[in-house]
Amino acid sequence: MLTENMTLSIFSPVMTWAESSNANWNMLLMGSLGFLIVGAALVTVYYYKIGKPDERTNQIYLKSVFVLLGAVILGDFFLPKEEMWTIFFIIKYGIAFLACGIYLAVQYKRDFAS
């Protein structure tokens, strides 16, 4: 109950702004899709930079998936599920992919870059 009230108070201005015109709706949709694409590209680039799974890199991949799962669970907890759920669904996975990509980038810089 408390999280629903908090979520509505935070995201109500965004919902009102997006529903006021088609241009605002499209801007929010394209921004969230861009967020998702950037996150997915970051994950893909660092996945290929780290290389094939072996004893050392397998742990990095498992921890990155754990970060991805944690971000998805937090997104389910905080983002609204009633109104505009498709856009918030895209934003949730964009945040998750971006968090996973940042984790992979930090691990790559720490372990592989000289």
TrEMBL record:
Keywords: Membrane, Transmembrane, Transmembrane helix. This is DUF2178 domain-containing protein. It comes from the Bacteria. It comes from Tetzosporium hominis. The chain crosses the membrane at residues 25-48, 60-79, 85-106. The keyword Transmembrane applies.
